[in-house]
């Protein structure tokens, strides 16, 4: 965040109440009602979750222990048998939602599709049987590298149906990034498409898969399943690659959901951390199903007639929890959009809302800031009167963007839920309940019932109101990550040891700085580790640095985030060159392109600065704090006494932007 954003958030004290019309129909109608619910849950969280699990989900067999907590390892609903695809599909066939639209898809260019619950169920069953034909069994990991098409959701649900954990890799990641993830997850199959549409161009997904698998680099992968989407020419490797439509021909649509153990792995999703390669965050079945179900229902105040649209990509946790599993588990109509706002179609989001009469809209602050730049005339020219609730996720929202969203998109009648959560938390943790909790622009407000959150110092002691500290969760919740795939030590180190446990009491360390105000409202300030958030996408500085030093010209690289008006942060890289290379515009372009090739376009540095040397401490640590100030164009202040060679700083300064 920029200094001016932080200052405006510190001064923010406006309070917005939901309209009487909204409150009247809301599931939770007042702050008192929320507080009662919250206190009840806090007094006995296990009882609270068990009651909801019983009322809200279908279990093939009931659990015998609600929570088995061997810190930092949690198990929820031990010995319960459940299938999330059953909860998302089968039960809606007999509760009156058979012919209700489950998935509305608005594709590019101009395609669209609507699948009812009965149709989606049939597609998922067929796909699941197809997976079985390819030899996929319970426990086998399946990579999914897809555009935003219904088959992405169908593939996820089909995997869940037969108990094969999926690992969705965002379609914008490069072949290299895909390969690393497939290797780490030991995926047996990759599901992809020939291509996907991205801003008026075709993304050659299958080509990327071929590159990722070249030279048997990911030996666990035996087959590739390809959905025909863009119909351009692609290579099909005999014996390895299969067209989805060929496999589907003649496949039975009868595929009962496999009763899964509540703690069986549902999916792995890779996310960036401060060190090393991305972590495979592991989520399991029962707790995740319950938590995403309840949060979707209460936070989005779902009603049967809603058309719900979350603009995330299914490659991120937001797409998993709030496009696919949460909404479908509730029997909602969820909308999936393949397009993105771009110069050739800047009003496309508002067209989609108008066309489908979207009532709940959930997007990211970076998108809102982009829309502000595009001008009010675009949304103003469309009918957005169907909207009744708005949400944001991914990064702190600055009050100016919040106010614009409220006024221009929400017509001053829609509550805004600012939802704080992470890949690791599986579901939304801190948020307003829209009919109950008055909102303040820039604050995620209060924890969801059953979530015990606090702002603490590094000893785990709560800090005073309005004092900065670390955001921590002090009690396990049903959808918490269970481990880092293949690396339980890293799980322990990353989340449970920054704040040392006291008397066996463990705190989950979220990696975010925050404060609580005098009303107990949370204000999340951003990451306190070496994670940067570019347009709501999480990237590790080390990942980008590794990509840079893998180029022969680069000797050393240091990457920092620089405040950006639209993207929140932008990547700035400082690099020193190997002896025989010298700085040039061509090299600069080449290095940027190299990072794109190693990770993907989301990691393209906004700026690369060549340096003779990087500022280091006497023990050889790069002083990122100095680089951050330099990148932001600020005066380097604070203690520089540990700097080994002061002339380095002077030279970097002179070189400037
Ligand atoms: C859902 C998601 C997680 C990080 C998290 C924060 C930041 C997300 C908010 C937010 C302030 C919010 N998962 N973050 N939501 N910061 N207010 N409402 O984004 O794993 O990709 O990122 O995103 O820093 O730690 S994520």
Tags for this model:
657 residues; alpha/beta; seven-stranded mixed beta sheet; five-stranded parallel beta sheet; 22% strand; binds 5'-O-(acetylsulfamoyl)adenosine
Summarize it.
By secondary structure, the protein is of the alpha/beta class. 32% of the residues lie in helices and 22% in strands. It starts with a helix and ends with a helix.
What can you tell me about this protein's structure?
The protein has 657 residues and is α/β, with parallel strands linked by helices. Helix content is 32%, strand content 22%. It has a 7-stranded mixed β-sheet with strand order 5-4-17-16-18-19-20, sandwiched between helices. A 5-stranded parallel β-sheet has the order 7-6-8-11-12, with helices on both faces. It has a 4-stranded antiparallel β-sheet with strand order 21-22-24-25. A hairpin with a 5-residue loop joins strand 4 (101-106) and strand 5 (112-116). Helix 3 (31-43) packs across helix 4. The longest helix is centred in the first third of the chain and has 17 residues, at 117-133. It is globular and about 75 Å long. The two termini are 19 Å apart.
Fold topology:
Layout: H1 3-10, H2 20-25, H3 31-43, H4 45-56, E1 65-70, E2 73-78, E3 81-82, H5 84-88, E4 101-106, E5 112-116, H6 117-133, E6 142-145, H7 150-162, E7 166-168, H8 175-185, E8 189-193, E9 196-198, E10 201-203, H9 205-213, E11 223-227, E12 241-243, H10 244-248, E13 260-261, E14 265-271, E15 279-284, H11 286-299, E16 307-310, H12 317-329, E17 333-337, H13 348-356, E18 360-363, H14 365-374, H15 377-380, E19 389-393, H16 399-409, E20 416-419, E21 453-456, E22 469-473, E23 483-484, H17 488-496, E24 508-516, E25 522-527, E26 531-534, E27 537-540, H18 541-549, E28 554-564, E29 568-577, H19 585-598, E30 607-610, H20 624-632, H21 646-655
Parallel strand pairs: 4-17, 6-7, 6-8, 8-11, 11-12, 16-17, 16-18, 18-19, 19-20, 29-30
Antiparallel strand pairs: 1-2, 3-13, 4-5, 9-10, 14-15, 15-23, 21-22, 22-24, 24-25, 26-27, 28-29
Helix pairs in contact: 3-4, 6-7, 8-9, 11-12, 14-16
